[in-house]
Recover the amino acids of this structure.
């Protein structure tokens, strides 16, 4: 049975909880399955740009964590993960009541993995894609 | 004579000042010349990831603003700018006393411009490149 | 009834047929539905790199066309499309008997669209993802 | 004294000469210094798209080789290089008499390196930037 006590979930959640940036953004992680995570966070006026949209970089902060934790959830036990690079496309303004990023591993390798994430905004219950990321992630063996 | 009162500088600075995210990161903008800007900001523990490095997304927030304001500084007067997409490469851990992003326009077009930015960390006076961005920016005519 | 004579298919196919690069790669296009296309092409030894893999740039040539024609298939009638930028991740060596790129529009806009494509190799009937692209495409009104 | 017989030049040139794709594009490599190369190639009508511009993917083929050989020229002797991913921005139409790509390493690492390349077209002696690439390259130890 799938439980929140499984080792890969505990490990991923623990690393997430050690990220001050995720606390600053009031972000919460759910590990859905090996290689797949969701991060939710609210609209926060202090992280907007000049048009009251959430700053693209702040959205990228969540997308990067979504890709990284998707990768960490299936990384070898003796490895930590590090983002090598990412690319973000902005599809719609970053407005809404809440946001959810869904991250998943596209290809897991011994050294290099690729993960994708899509960020959705939710306004009055209606959900729309706001941004996408493709990230290259490296396993760093301890 | 180059002065801080030139219209393109005033306009760029004014938009920057309206970005709450830049205030949250204690960031300061200097418009160096048409198409070229610098943004400085300090290390802030609340925006780090699990290894005490500044979160890659937070660095991207500054890099995105550096690219966007470089583009805005030479955009037509009746245009605002919007980031279409960007790509970030992480070269070194985001640690240091202070950081500086240098953004410049690579190619200005009527609709689409391309800008580059490099982020440097400074530790005890020694400067090192930490991350680079290439961004595609759209002029949105009002 | 869906037929190959529908206007959007005819228009997309016609533009594809005018691309000498697609002929040079022995590539064939099938427009699957509005915003979705497939391009198939064979392994060609003359377009490999030093390890006998198809060159990443050659794979990108097909991926770019897959994204561009997905976008063209739903572009306004008075618009042509132009690639603004793309990003490619290489997942596996470009080897196999034949290749197929599946391109689809992620978000269609009046000026800017975003499309994704995945390239699969097929060896003895077994299919594997080899590379992915995300592309930003501009509608250029005539 | 700098000569064409230096080991890093011989090694880089030798690998380039083993790329059939570079022969197909009539491309020629010059290793300028450790971490820096140039590749020249002519306009070839058979590799164009529907507007008689060189296909963006074909330009990317040269840019990818420029980044890869810049990286190989300073890679450890027991390592080969493999492109992990790249991003291309298209600045101007790919037209001209001849093209030159200048590739250089931005940051060399033990496992991962980052390289940049810019492609210039030359028409009647006038040179203009046509496209830029940032590539992530992996050292693969034999």
């Amino acid at each position: 049975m799938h439980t929140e006590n499984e080792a890969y979930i505990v490990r991923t959640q623990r690393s997430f909880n050690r990220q001050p940036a995720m606390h600053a953004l009031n972000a919460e992680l759910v590990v859905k399955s090996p290689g797949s995570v969701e991060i939710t966070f609210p609209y926060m006026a202090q992280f907007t740009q000049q048009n009251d949209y959430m700053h693209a970089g702040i959205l990228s902060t969540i997308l990067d964590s979504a890709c990284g934790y998707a990768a960490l959830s299936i990384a070898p036990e003796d490895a930590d993960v590090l983002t090598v690079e990412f690319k973000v496309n902005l599809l719609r303004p970053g407005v809404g009541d809440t946001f959810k990023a869904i991250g998943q591993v596209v290809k897991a390798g011994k050294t290099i993995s690729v993960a994708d994430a899509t960020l959705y905004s939710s306004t009055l219950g209606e959900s729309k894609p706001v941004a996408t990321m493709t990230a290259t992630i490296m396993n760093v063996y301890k």
Observations:
- The beta strands of chain C are 28-33, 36-42, 79-90, 98-107, 112-123, 126-141.
